[in-house]
Amino acid sequence: MLRELVDTQAPMTDTTIASTFEARLALARDTSVRLKRAIAQVIVGQDTVVEQVLWGLLASGHVLLEGNPGLGKTLLVRTLSSCLDLRFSRIQFTPDLMPSDVTGTNVLVLDAGAAGRAGRFELHKGPIFGQVVLADEINRATPKTQSALLEAMQEHAVTIAGTRHTLEEPFFVLATENPIEMEGTYPLPEAQLDRFLLKVAVPSPSEDELTEILARTTGKPTGEPERVLSLADVRGLQTLCREVAVAEPVLRYAARLVGASAPGAAQAPPLVRRAVRYGAGVRGAQSLILAAKAVALLEGRAHVAFADLQRTAAPVLRHRILLSFEGEADAVTSDEIVRELLACVPTRPEAVERAAQAV
Known about the structure:
Blueprint: H1 14-40, H2 47-58, E1 62-66, H3 73-83, E2 88-92, H4 99-103, E3 104-110, E4 119-125, E5 132-136, H5 143-146, H6 148-155, E6 157-160, E7 163-166, E8 172-177, H7 190-193, E9 196-201, H8 207-217, H9 231-243, H10 248-260, H11 270-275, E10 276-278, H12 282-298, H13 306-317, E11 322-323, H14 325-329, H15 334-344, H16 349-358
Parallel strand pairs: 1-8, 1-9, 2-5, 5-8
Antiparallel strand pairs: 3-4, 6-7, 10-11
């Protein structure tokens, strides 16, 4: 689909390149509409959640879904994988799960027909070798097992018995966790949290949505959703997402937002200085730009706007801002910190300075 717009034998002039890029953007917008429609055949409501998961897919980033039990987090991931021609695998995290259960291990295989029953080691791949990987209830595994995901999420590869194995692209981890079931859970290490492009909050359904859910799930089973994107289409969209332009003022706004989240920064708002222990870092700024590019791509735009950064700030930064003891005691949330940053950090500081000088 997207690849056909690139494979052309005609010489590429500036006008041809521009028109081809616009056509690819339009096709990406239409494809996103079809994908959302296919997901809506199974998932009731949750439009914001579906949108943000697609941001992660297009930006080649991993997504952490947090919500109460029974809100359809696992179903959403399964439905998304059904709409994509990608290999799906699931890891159910439990306290007794071992790292080799995630990555796989070398197994001794004996050749029955050989003299002396000679043996060889064969790799038995674990579920991490999928393309859409569901890490269900990720906070129920020990930190040792959670760390098995770090190399895969960052490098898209795993090392087993000293041998590095590259994972097939695209590689997309969607993890779920329940915030209210704290018994028998382990907090995710900060380094692992930082590898998630987005942390998506899954809300409870409204009365109308819950009524529709009951009608769908207690009656005749519905069929599988339409398969919308092939592997080549997904790779094409991810490549196109990187090509979305970002002007320097927008880059600087992202840098100011992330910089102001540190309590020691000169531009940090009072709430940040009082309630935050550590702010977002470089990966937070990179994720902010990538997610904003995905927003622009889904809407068929070739440029990232200030509003795109403001729209993606909460899911990008909420898991990267660590509260201080005072902030936790005052029940301050990371979302409140993000709202304060958006309210206090100007999009164009030079305009603010000119206005102050004029007064």
